Amino acid sequence: MSDMKPPNPILDSLDKKKTERRKVLDDDGKPIGEETWGYWEQGERWRRVHLLGGINARYGSKDEEDVPRYGSVDERDAALFDEIINSACFPTIPSN
C-alpha cells in the first residue's frame, strides 16, 4: 500500500458529490481489500477502507445519518487521516 496515493476528490473531479470505490492491491497486484471515499458539497470528506484480516479504517460521515457516529472531517484533517491510512503495511512472511 505504500505507493497508494491518498484520494483527493477535489483535484480528481469537479463533481461536488464525488464518490469512488476501488480495490486495494499489494505490491504484486493482488487484491487485499477495498476502499470507498468521497466528499459532500460543503467539502467534508469521508473514507472507508476494508483490508484482509478484518482491518478497517474510517473517518467522516457518508451521509447525514452518520454524523453523530463519525462527525465531520475537513480537508486538512482528512489529509492527516489519509497519511495514516496509507501507511498501513503487512509484514512479508518468508517462505521456507
Structural overview:
The protein has 96 residues and is α+β, with helices and mostly antiparallel strands. The chain has one domain (9-86). 21% of the residues lie in helices and 29% in strands. It is built from three helices and four strands, in the order αββββαα. It has helices at 9-12, 67-70, 75-86; strands at 19-25, 31-39, 45-51, 55-59. It has a four-stranded antiparallel beta sheet, with helices on one face. It starts with 8 loop residues before the first helix and ends in a 10-residue tail after the last helix. The model is unreliable at 9-14 (pLDDT under 50).
Shape: elongated
Largest sheet: 4 strands, antiparallel
Average pLDDT confidence is 77
Instruction: Round the Cα radius of gyration to an integer and report it.
Output: 14 Å
**Major sheet strand order:** 1-2-3-4
Compute the separation of the termini in Å.
25 Å
* Helical amount: 10-25%
Low-confidence stretches: 9-14
* Count of β-strands: 4
Number of domains: 1
Tell me the quaternary state: single chain
Question: What is the SS-derived class?
Answer: alpha+beta
N-to-C series of helices and strands? HEEEEHH
Q: Please state roughly what percent of the residues sit in beta strands, choosing from under 5%, 5-15%, 15-25%, 25-35%, 35-45% or over 45%.
A: 25-35%
List the total number of helices.
3
